[in-house]
Each structure stands twice: as structure tokens, then as C-alpha cells.
Amino acid sequence: MGTLDEFRRLGADVRNWGRWGDDDELGTLNFIDAEKVAEAASLVRHGRVFALGVDFSSAGPQGAFAFRQNPVHVMTVDGGDVTTLARYGVGWSRNLAAHQLGEFFTDNPFRFNDDMIVMPLQAATQWDALSHVYYDDLLYNGFPAGSVTSLGAYHCGIDKVDAKGITSRGVLLDLVAHRGAQTFLEHGTPITPDELDRVAASQGVTVGRGDIVLVRTGWWSRFLSTGDGAELGAGLDWSCAAWLHDHQVAAVAADNLMVEDPVSGVEGTYLPMHMLCLRDMGMMLGEYWDFQALAADCAADGVYEFQLVAPPLRVTGAVGSPVNPIAIK
Ligand code: UVW
């Protein structure tokens, strides 16, 4: 178990503030340059596409924390409206929506359905923006934490990374296969930097500058079989922040709820790797990704690298974003 002093020392070691300028809000996505994007595209050899996003639905993994709910999806115009509104809508002047829909649906064959979704941006497959987590009242690159207001994140919002795509070479590290786990990595068995090296070596893949590393813990497969979104499983030990820093990784994503191990490896704080990655390094975290089909394909052909395309939504000032990432081989 590390101490808060050790945590702060590692924070100082991996801190990228000023590395790409005092006004930088991209963080380690800066490692992805034009050559890297072209290299990633050259990894597409067969045209096999793997969607890495999970369902956005009421059956999602939220519920354990009162501050996060599963998506609420409601229809705002549907076939049930047609008959009634075509007959009574026009002239229903005190209900403007009914009146307008009545005009659409009267005396012509045109019909349509509309819907809306209400959800925490962190509910399902997502990117954490750099403004998601902080400590000592400072965000990445020293921006004040108070710059995230009720109006959104003025600094380090998800909209700030739009220019990066996000696309790069993706590398899957399959911890489930490496450990020979039944479904997922058992709680209390955090993933160490040495183990990441061993997995990469056994898969015959290297991790380098600008890569987006995908860590398979099996948590999502487990959730699909149990429906228990509160089950903890295992994730990256906080010391993996140094490994990600040393390898000049652009971003890291996992198939679990928090990428890092749910048991804090630092006495006196929660989620130390979140703080080191998002706030000190400027490295985005992806959570609730689904690697099942991709992992099966990688095991079959022995190729663990691919083009990854994972653009967040341009939600102005948001501290995270839903994403439907695509891996292409
Ligand atoms: C927090 O860090 C609070 O949440 P998440 O694991 O979704 O990033």
C-alpha cells in the first residue's frame, strides 16, 4: 500500500504540465501525430470491424451509485400519435406540439418517429475528459478547478480534444487470456506494470508512443452474465500510471467501470490512477468498453494491434462523453 507522499512524488514524476505549452488541453493525445494516424490506418488489412461500445439502455451497469443512473430513453413522437393527431391535432392550439404534428400527419402519407435520451455522460461506454478528476484544486496543466462551473468545463472539456479524432494505433492487452481466467479478473488481484510487460511480450506486441492501450479484464463479460454493475473485479494498479507515462501512451481504456483497480493502492485517497492520469499526465481514460469480439479475433489471428477510431461527442464543456469506439483490422 502506497502513502500519499509516494503518490505525490509519482504525480510530480509523471506530470506533463507545460510539455506541450501552457495553454495545452490535449495532454497525451499530443503523442498522436499525422505519422501515427497513417501508421494506424496501415494496420487495416482485412476490413474486419469490431464495435467496442456497449448498449445504452435501462439494462446498463449503473444503479450502485445514487449519482449515476442508466440512460432513460423516451419516444417523443411515435406511431401512436399518428391516428389521433391526424384527426384532432390541427386546431389543438393550446398544445403546440400536437398542433404541429397534426399538420404533419393530416392528408398526406408522411410519418416519422422521434426520441430523446436522458443520461449521465458517464453511464456507459465513455471517455473521461481531463476535467473529470482533479486534486489540490488544479486540473491538468495547472488550470483552476473552479473553471469547471455549473455552465460546464471552461478548460479541459471533452470538446477540446475534438481536433484529435480520436484515432490511433490500438493495442489490446488481454489479461483474461494471459491469466487463464474463467470470465474476469478476480477482485483483489490488481494488474501490475510487470504484468503488462509480460502480456505484451506473450502476445508479441509492443506498446509505444501515441498508442491507445485497451486492457481486457473480463468485467463486461461478467456483467452481461450477472447483471451486477456493482461487482468490483480487478483493474490497473496505480503504479501502472508510470508504465503508461514511460511508454508515451496516448490514452487507456478498459472493459470495466474505472480502468484502475477498485481498491485504492494509496492509503487515504480514492482512485489514485485517475488523478495521476487525468490531472497530472493529461491522459484520458475510457470505461465500459466491450472487447469480447475483438479479443476472440486477436486470439485467432495472433494480431493484437489495429486501427482504433473513438471520437467523443462534441458536448461543449462536458467532463466526459459517450463513445462507440471501432477497432478495424
Ligand atoms: C470517477 O472517477 C468518479 O468515475 P469514473 O470511474 O467513472 O471515471
From TrEMBL:
Origin superkingdom: Bacteria
InterPro entries: KFase/CYL, KFase_sf
Gene3D superfamilies: Putative cyclase
Protein name according to UniProt: Cyclase family protein
The species this protein was found in: Mycolicibacillus parakoreensis
